[in-house]
């Protein structure tokens, strides 16, 4: 109970700090206020993880709560300074925004329908994510491994159980780790990740509004994004693609509103500086989410220079805005995003390790190490245009595909039927409006987002890899739909109704079919055939199971690790660096019942025993990895060890099983 109360307190303090900074930034639009608040909220948790956990090395509940208190104090000081200068201004804006937001839903049945659909879909996914332990492959393999290790050791340090957890930027993982370090369990991690989904939707709606779409259609753009299969299918998992896209979209939106905010303010220079702080927080969080966002960082950084130059020239501010805003932009990028690359650079002499790129050596390229076996069989060796066509048309023939993290068709039926053709027409409409200077800046930024998303992507056919560009295209799509809706001629009104009906039908079909089977697999034999055919368990089976007291032990892969129940809580299991285990998190347990330590590849048995004594590890897990070849045959004969159980139930998607064998180092030999 005390841990939960401390978590609520620390989170409330971060919320307070984010709200105070939002007031200080002086947003003039509701979407701007929400994007600013959510950006500060999420980047604030990332910042606390780095400063308190990594630099001060106190990744523990009380120090993190104290750090949250300092953040709240800074936010309140900034807010009080702004409110003293403009008393009552923010409150008046808040009341106006509320009235406008409520009016924006009036007479708009399609956004209202999709809004209710989104609440239902994300309510279901959030419920399943909270009630069941993690079941997604990448989450169990490395996304949760690092924060669990930090919570175990009390510092944001090395996580050598698997190379990806020790080298990838871990910004989004720090969001999942926030409740984990307080509660010692993974129960509520997905709720903190869902905040990124809201950020993405609001940023898309704001960009569509700046482009010139009506308020209802701007909201529609954000809702369609949330109801895209490759988006909602990740909502109960620890994948980071949606959050990664959300921060990029937030950065684009901040730049899009900057000129207008400066124009409406009596102090344009101050507005530029404060907006650059929000932009820096968004770009730092983006870079700290995925290394592919470095393209977003570079492109948006150049665009920021252009936008600031335009604003400074328009308001005759000279060079001062550059001097004042540069630290506000650069410092959050360096701390929140750059830390992870510096850490990897110091440990591996390559900030992108294990990827070899831009002159840094590594074991392989993105195509070799990341894509490789992730490319579906039907797309291997196929030219890119054909890959795109196969992926984009798949929902027409396969309505039962529930797993959108790997399989093709992740953008759903609405993509090819409505979004792609209307977004292309929307771009043409926007180009025709350039002479009137309507939505020029927002349109340029949206095209930039499309370019950096689809262009550098190693797999543009893969829905979850291009969510940033897809969100930008939705803004153009809804611009055209908004323009058609304004016409009063009979044929155009009929077209408007047909397009809205098609979008609603395709979206409803995607949500309905995407929730028939959820990729959470149970241990029941009768579910096996359904899982093999459909890729998941029927939702009608999962909902009753989510209420069962023993639900945690009835879903994959935790069913494969029941043998570890005999290991006493608090025991430490040793792995060797370079092990072949695919799923690390189940070794610890959903409530971190067991510790993990990583030892050097043993030269011989005495070397292994010395390392186990040093790390106070009473168990060791060996597998088929070559690092164990020198002692593999001797362990069964050695009197220091007792064989406990095989752990060979989990195999990678491709390749051989790890052939794990757990051994217990006898207590008398630990001394």
TrEMBL record:
Domain of life: Bacteria
Bilayer-spanning residue ranges: 6-25, 37-56, 62-84, 105-124, 188-208, 217-239, 245-264, 271-288, 294-310, 322-342, 412-431, 438-456, 462-482
UniProt KW Membrane keyword: yes
Metal-binding listed as a keyword: no
Keywords: Membrane, Transmembrane, Transmembrane helix
Protein name: Glycosyltransferase family 39 protein
Native source species: Actinocorallia libanotica
Organism lineage string: Bacteria, Bacillati, Actinomycetota, Actinomycetes, Streptosporangiales
